[in-house]
Amino acid sequence: MRWIDGVWLFFALVLGMGVSTGAIADWRLDNTQSSVNYSTVKNGSVIEYNQFRNIGGSITKGGEVSVTIDLTSVDTRIPIRDERMKKELFVTEKYPLTTLSANVDPVMLSNMTAGKTQAMEVVFSLDLHGMKQELKAQMQVTGLENGGLLVSTIWPVNIGAEQFGLEKGVEALREIAKLNSILLSVPVNVNMVFVK
């Protein structure tokens, strides 16, 4: 099996079962109810909103969080721009996925009844474009019916292109679109529903 075939097989399992080790996951991410959105600023003041349509993940009862984002599912609402993002910025032929991992308080998770909310700072590891960085996010967890969880950002998480070696890709996009500027930092918001 070629490496790239293995990657897509893995991601198919992520979307289908939450994670490849779905048998031990206590919550799996529901892609149909979840979103990862970010905004970009070009020419100083023009804001554009984008999202990734395919995400998967899980939370174990021990508090281990794993989320995988399919970068080929980027959606800017303009097909040619989607293709440029995949080719020039994310280089999805080489880096089709990005992954996030974190650990949260398992006692808090076990106490999340329907309607209960808990705010927390989460330290997480983000593996993007072949580089891994540790970041922080202000998150809120809300208990749902049937034991589910809603995990959302309280404030956007700012991701800098320079943190993950994406500056050249941003510059390539700027030149192709003949723009004066594209900001190198983007705010990211997430709303993730995990079900049992």
UniProtKB/TrEMBL annotation:
Q: SMART domains, alphabetically?
A: YceI
Q: Which Pfam families match?
A: YceI
Supply the InterPro entries for this chain.
Lipid/polyisoprenoid-bd_YceI, TTHA0802/YceI-like_sf, UCP029811
Q: Where is the Lipid/polyisoprenoid-binding YceI-like domain?
A: 26-195
Q: Which protein, by its recorded name, is this?
A: Lipid/polyisoprenoid-binding YceI-like domain-containing protein
